[in-house]
Amino acid sequence: MVFDIDMIKSVYAAFPGRIAAARKAEGRPLTLTEKILYAHLSEGEASEKHERGVSYVDFKPDRVAMQDATAQMALLQFMQAGRSKVAVPSTVHCDHLIQAEVGANPDLAKAKDKNREVYDFLSSVSNKYGLGFWKPGAGIIHQVVLENYAFPGGMMIGTDSHTPNAGGLGMVAIGVGGADACDVMAGLPWELKFPKLIGVKLTGKLSGWTSAKDVILKVAGILTVKGGTGCIVEYFGEGAHSLSATGKGTICNMGAEIGATTSIFGYDEKSEAYLRGTDRSEVADLANSIREHLTGDPEVYANPEAYFNEIIEINLSELEPHVNGPFTPDLAWPLSKFAAAVKENNWPQKLEVGLIGSCTNSSYEDISRAASLAQQAVDKKLKAKSEYTITPGSEQVRFTVERDGFLGIFENMGGVVLANACGPCIGQWARHGAEKQEKNSIITSFNRNFAKRADGNPNTHSFVASPEVVTAMAIAGDLTFNPMTDTLTNEEGKQVKLEEPAGLELPVKGFAVEDAGYQEPAADGSEVEVKVAPDSERLQLLEPFQPWEGTDLKGLKLLIKAKGKCTTDHISMAGPWLRYRGHLDNISNNLLIGAVNFFNDTTNKVKNQLDGSYGEVPAVQRQYKLHNIGSMVVGDENYGEGSSREHAAMEPRFLGVRAILVKSFARIHETNLKKQGMLALTFDNPADYDLIQEDDSLDIIGLDSFAPGKPLTVLCHHADGSKDEIKVNHTYNAGQIRWFKAGSALNLVKDNAI
Ligand code: MIC
Ligand code: SF4
Predict the structure, then answer these.
(1) 3-class DSSP state for residue 259?
(2) Which atom of ligand 2 is the closest one to the Cα of 67?
(3) Three-state SS for 217?
């Protein structure tokens, strides 16, 4: 059973009634997002009105999806929850732990060997508790989900921030931490603040060099990495209906980069074609039967300003291809302005590597369009000047594009096909020479380009673009090349120009695959044994965190005051550390090693207040832990931006950090902190960040009357004896305060208290 048709039927059966109740409660026509959200609210809540950006509400998601690097911790928590089977259809996907080095087959074989213990663990836990298991090599979670599980009008949570990819097929799909996934798998509702809504109206039609990726590159430029926080982005308009389902997936996928809760498109003919093309005609027929509920009401789209909190309009006919970067995905450059930007900013003009694929851009359409350029390169006697790699998103796509000759075309151009996995996108890239830390440029069709992410080299300037633009630039070997206007010199010394890319949304002969790499769980898993070796360095059973001691927290040491961007990559780096994602003690050795210390502008060097020496962040924190002294981390804006990895919250918790005080949080990270029993606090006056000094001891006052909406006080004792009192806010509701008091949300689940 790959997709659960009965589940889809029952979701759809509830739609008309739920939506009618919601229209009544809101007293007006509804957006698509509202329809799906109301249809998934816990009993009783569907007939009440919920205030956007204010009310916390409980949802009942239909599915859970997890990738291997986050599933380990999610499932270690689920094992503590005392349930015998998952309550909703759930899957695990082995994609993050495969390192790209030589090419697909040898890399996959090596990964299976190196990660055997983790794969065995995930496969046996899946088998025991009733989860579908996608083996290494089967593909990247979001592509596999889009091909097999996503369905219009559904709701899914996934332990990866790019879960919104399924919004391309009309699903509300939200990235969460493992603790949230654990709750839903345990049959509990899932809580979210009712989101605000951003409407993006698409007019016109894409053509030539522009592709769906350029829509989100443009939107990222408009909204920035924070602009979508607390919002769901709903795309509509005739332009939306002209985009393929996978193109829509690309847009929703990279919506994670603007901090949006998720993004979504309505059901249309392209969605139907994709469902039929991926062997799900049954789902398409069902969706057709409730078609009017799988899109916003006509009044909404006729007068969007009245229904959305913010509106953006993009004319696809006028949209230019974009290149975003370096170091942040929202620095958006229209292609015609990019060459000048490269020169002005002194970014390395020579392009070392072009990388296409990833969960964002690895559809049949993407690969066929990029291949059309590779074919032109071969025909026009051009050899790619840069290295060039291709990561297919799933075995089904890989098998099909190989059958249709595209992979062969890339190889003729000098390209290397990597395994169906995350690879370089998440730092799983044995890039030769990266350790020399030379200044260089790469361009990818991925979604994130934070410093060090791909190859660990802080001087790698990483840019993001569509697969077509990446391919053209890799052929040219030059970042200032504009394929729309410039020519290239071929091997015969002639000037040649690349023509516009061309491709197919879906394979004419249909998709094919020999072994998709799926393992169905045992019908009765009670006898399946899950083994975790006590001396394993990669897996460790969890111990519950201690409950709150019932008093204010006094004498906390400042561990670090992080300066500027502090993403989850800075807090809990990926790459080599992915190895320890199932071992809390070992992975805690990467705590905040990428964060810049405000007081010395250096990473991983903080003052140990016990003896005045400077040491690495995890080492200093372990000293505090040894002496039973709590500590606090201070941060800047959008702290915890990026990934859903809850390690970024569990590590500080495990090592004895008690509170994180910042100017603002990214959504998933803030929830992850709350779930693990940490205090996530924000400065009432962001300028108070400046009051925090290196030798501070800090008290958190007011916890005995910790209550929703009531600020707390942080008392800073400075080394010179002076003091500052800082007002700090929080967003804990009553239930979340119980998590804090119990030591973690899981402690309550285990005691069956929730
Ligand atoms: C990422 O793209 O950063 C990741 C790796 O997929 C993460 C998940 C993780 O940290 O394991 C994400 O996006 O959530
Ligand atoms: Fe994997 Fe990269 Fe996609 Fe994250 S963004 S799921 S690392 S391919």
Answers:
(1) coil
(2) 6
(3) helix
Closest ligand 1 atom to 572 CA: 10
DSSP state of 639: B
Tokens 């291997």 correspond to what residue? 68
CA of 423 from ligand 2 middle (Å) equals 8
Q: Is ligand 2 within 6 A of the CB of residue 425?
A: yes
3-state helix, strand, coil in the chain (%, to 5): 35, 20, 40
Pick out the chain residues at pLDDT < 50: 1
Q: Does residue 419 line the site of ligand 1, with CB under 6 A?
A: no
b/e for 629-659, b at 16 or more Cβ within 10 A?
A: bbbbbbbbbbbbbbbbbbbbbbbbbbbbbbb
Quote the pTM value. Answer: 0.94
If we measure between CA atoms, which residue out of 613, 565, 622, 548 comes closest to residue 590?
622
Asked if residue 429 has its Cβ within 6 Å of ligand 2, the reply is no
Residues 6+ apart with CB under 8 A from 749: 81, 82, 182, 183, 186, 188
Ligand 1 center to 644 CA (angstroms):
6
Q: What is the pLDDT of residues 502-552, one digit of tens each?
A: 999 999 999 999 999 999 999 999 999 998 999 999 999 999 999 999 999
The number of the ligand nearest the C-alpha atom of 569 reads: 1
Half-sphere exposure of 254 (CA within 13 A, CB side): 32
Answer for the pair 689, 636: CB distance below 8 angstroms, yes or no.
Answer: yes
Residue 162 Cβ inside 6 Å of ligand 1? The answer reads yes
